[in-house]
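#structure-requests
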Amino acid sequence: MPLFAAFAVCSLVVGCSTSSAPSTPELEVVRAGAVIQDANFADSVFVNGLQGPTTMTFAPDGRLFVSEKNGSLRIVENGQLLPTPFVALTVDDDNERGLMGIAFDPNFPHNHYLYVYYTADDGTIHNRLSRFTANGNVAVPGSELVLADFPTLDAANHNGGAVHFGLDGKLYVSVGENAVSSNSQSLNTPLGKLLRFNPDGTIPTDNPFYATATGLAKATWALGLRNPFTFAVQPGTGTLFINDVGEGGWEEINRGQAGANYGWPFTEGYFTNRPELTQPFFAYPHGTGTAAGNCIAGGAFYNPPTSAFPGAYYGQYFFADYTNNWIRRIDPNSGANSLFATDIAGPVDLDVGPDGALYYLARGSGQVGRIAYTASLPPSIAQQPANALVSVGYPATFTVSASGEPPLTYQWQRGGVNIAGATSPSYVLNSAQLADSGARFRVVVTNGLGSTTSAEAVLTVTSNKPPVATIVTPGASATYTAATNLTFSGSASDQEDGSLPPSAMTWSIVFHHDTHTHPAMPDTTGIASGSWLIPNVGESSSNVWYRVWLTVRDSIGLTHTTYRDVYPVTVPITVHTVPFGLQVLMDGQPFTAPHNTVGVVGVIRSVGVDSPQYANGKFWAFSSWSDGGAQSHTFTTPGSSATFTATFVETSGGSCYQIQSERTDKWLTVNTAGKVVAGSTTQAGGQIFQLVPTGTRYKLKGSGSAFLAVVSNQLTMSANFSSAESFTQLPCGYGGRTRVGFQASSGSAPHWKEATPGEPIQSGDGGNGGACNAADGGAWEGFYLEPVACPGSSTGPVCGNGTVEGSEQCDDGNTSSGDGCNATCTIEAGSSAGCFRIQSERTDNWLTVDGTGKVAALSTTQTGGEVFELVTSGTQYKLRGASGAYLAVVANQLTVNATLGTAEPFTRHACGVYGGRNRYGFESSTGTARNWKEVTPGAPIQSGSGGNGGVCNATDGGSWEAFYLEPATCPGAKR
């Protein structure tokens, strides 16, 4: 095949375009062809002979795994490409399809799990995420566990395919939009996203779109991506950079953020006027040369355990362009970037090796290249082998850590004589005998530039047996709650010494969180028992436990270590809002209510809300918490399930004004581009701005639901409430008129000013000395505020006039019955808490209203269920059916035949989470045993009859008292 044609086919691997065919080196070369900008670096071929390589990843033990597009996963060990693949998958490798991603479980040394992303062809063609179990250099036969099958592919390109673990222990997967750009913005498909899974393939419920997305799209961590073929996670910090292959003009590096929308297909590269979208961290244009390109296809942070590059390179992000054959580096903090290497034959992936060298995968030459700093090329010993003391018959292990230009070879010696077959970084004498005592072991490490010999380690073998450590407490099934003492006790014995004293015992406690650990109680020697106070502040997660370690040492230095795990007592915690669906803050993090979490009993956590909030075209002000706490307050996780409900009242949201420019005497308007300009010569022609308090600052609302943001230093009416800019209003004083300055929440000189008459008002650029500074040259920073009625309101002091006066808690001035605000501007009974369909846990059927008005669980589908509106009645609820009639209890049966005044009020009790869903019990206001229950399947639901011991009581015989509530759209207009 001609060289150009071969390259054109290869270019399709990552969905990039090429304007011309670059020169491709021959496969069989001794030295790689990369040109490094710094002469102190050297490039070499690490391995040859790869067929269509797509990605590579170093295993924790230093082996390099390389995927080939045809489905073969190859291993490079000690610098050699092994002939037998780790696994050979059956894949569809048309176009960009094939084997594309590899990741090692953070606990790989123990569980041997490895994750891959490939295009499966087993009835339909689709991308798949699977887990395999390793057995040495091959996968365990039949060990594939399919974690996710993605949608059937419509196109053969834009597959994405990178797989990495984050520092949170979650598995991140980048998926292309399959050449359907609308997929990138849809929460009904996982395509065009960066996804986040638990290691077992389940979807974390704290994913930002878990509650709003459907199916696999619930795994969405960030959206708006086109073809994120590669991404990288920075060791230590967890910073995540996503490399998104561009379409018409730009290649992007996006800083990973939970919930971010990177804008595809709305934008590409840098953009303006879209405050709801996330700008790329860095973007470079399409074109030729070393500052442009057509396909970003590799990235790696330089954060090896031991740095082999100069200090200026540490923490830098290296990225490659496939079509223009270069590698550049960029500072993740400052954004400063520079060229690093050129003339690489189609780089598709980068990685930093355990030796501190930068490795690149050159698809065009079928090679892995290695770029090393020349000062680190000779072999050197980083960690010498240590002396060993073992009992007779036990293994003795000696280990060395070395670095240098690979491949490194190892030869262990005993007494200066080579040990046959001992050619690994570690040497194990499997069963040490007394005759081996006093033997000396060392290793010679060699590469092409020389060799070095380690220090000698001495083996001592004794006929004494190791001691035995025993933990008595905590017991095998022990649990803990926070703010209590974790007590521990144990014993130690030895065959030769007998019972060992406390001085032979060392205790420690380690705190485990998910897949990582934190120190808890440090090593403590000299006690046989003790206690350690478990903290009640800090980590609020529930996937935690403590590990108690005991190490004992006998009189000659032999040791034995054991441990005992202690798990927490946890309870479900639910945070609601009234009305339904507002935002809450759990431990300072925002969530949309209802928010479900799990807490460790005794841990101090916090709950709060921002106020006001804007939702469904209305403003809502915080009123109270169900536990009586302040707007933001702490609580101690109780011993049973807990529900916190934040009640909001509809409010005007703030006062309304028309704003006049002091510089030109014109009134602010919003032009067709959404920019705020001083454009009207009359007040009547000026825009009405609603100043909405947010803490001590304000957000400004214009017409409809548009809020003011600062885009490229210009005031732009383009945001929603949550993304709107917060401004400080600074009094300036002038005559009898209200004259103020406005200051944005960020920027070195963020005050509003009409820098050029008729041009958009600016905020954030330099040059002014402060708001309302008359000495500040031509920069104008004072505005007049003229009070006006908010749209839809009158100017008198009545409900909804734009200002909350006295005890007013009103909405839009409409005082008709049932709108939430009565004629005296207080909340009336009957505010809606949202609409729901209700499912019986006993039969899985949905509640309906039969021909006699009775409520029974009859529908097998959710859509066939009755929509019930929960209407607040103090701390209880009344339920309204779709007909407009309310629920009452007639002869112990639920019947929809009442008015608001005669309806039965019910108390709703949280019953906990089952199968990821919230369960509730309902209790009527009267009767000795008044909890809802489906006594007879298909018969009317009962309330008030005897026989049950309480709401959600699992020991209550066959009486079923838990229901699932699924949010639904309320029928018709608001009543």
